[in-house]
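Lab notes, practical 5.
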Amino acid sequence: MRNIFLKIKEQLAAQLPFAVYSKPGSEAITGVFQKDDAQYSPDDFKKKGFVFAPFEGEAVFIPFDAAEVVNAEIEVGGFKKLQPKSFDINKEAKADFEALVAKSVAAINTGQFKKLVTSRTEAVEFDDADVTLIYEKLLYTYPAAFRYCFYSPQSGLWMGATPEQLLKVENNTVHTVALAGTQLFTEEQETVWETKEQEEQQFVTDYILKELREHAADIVTTEPYTFRAGNIVHIKTDISAELKMDSSIKDVISTLHPTPAVCGLPKADAKAFLIHNEGYDRGFYSGYLGELNADAATGHHKTDLFVNLRCMKIEGNIANLYIGCGITKDSNPEKEFFETVNKSMTMRKVL
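Output from the prediction step:
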């Protein structure tokens, strides 16, 4: 594992692309270190490599055959339970976000949208100059998430611990999830979901099922269940299907991304509304990332992609956190703001 961390520092110094990641529940860590400074594209999505795609725009791609792939085990040890430092709420940011939520609720109430997913960014100064230490904390703190560190000159340096799978494809079987609704996790009491949260999750499930039918058959879903991701919980539905002979992975990705869990419904109109009203560029937040057409550790033909949530972009000693929440007709602007604060704790803990 230390060899991988050393390679991270070398790649950053040379400004060469890399992806380092560990899959949910795994004790293995993989590093994909590009050997040259060329800019690659996934093109028709039939190449083998690691893809890092934005909310809107062209994806960054590291082909496995243009990289050194290093696999290791996460070392035993880790960190003590981390708690974020106390911080003051930025009143201007709170007011701006609540105004955005109120505008979104008003748009939903006109019948234009069923749901919108508003987001914001928050800059946090941190002390650790060593980014590998921050990533190591991510590895130990969120074992159930897809924990990654990615750099390219086009994207900059990103880290995250995302709980949401976009797509998994193996032997023509497609696996995806519908994930929505958010509450703080507490040991003391069982999670009870309000109607607003259940409706929000059902919107996501219905959309995915509708869109998948064009490219897949024999669709099977689980009942919605509570899923824990760090200090918060969501409602989750697992979905599987068989890819049709005349459909491709690119077709399914284009259909699913961006999902209603990060954008809204109807998707195209919601996306345009958010780009116009959020007041900042999401960049690679709420995009997707992961292995395309091959498992780097085993070489098996497999696609394993995740939605880029609970993430941050690091610039010097500033971490720009990206956080959002689903808005429906019943949303309360102040409550939604504090939902984003709760979600920000995922990254604040490791800073």
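Observations recorded by the TA: DSSP finds seven helices and 18 strands in the chain. The chain has a mean pLDDT of 93.
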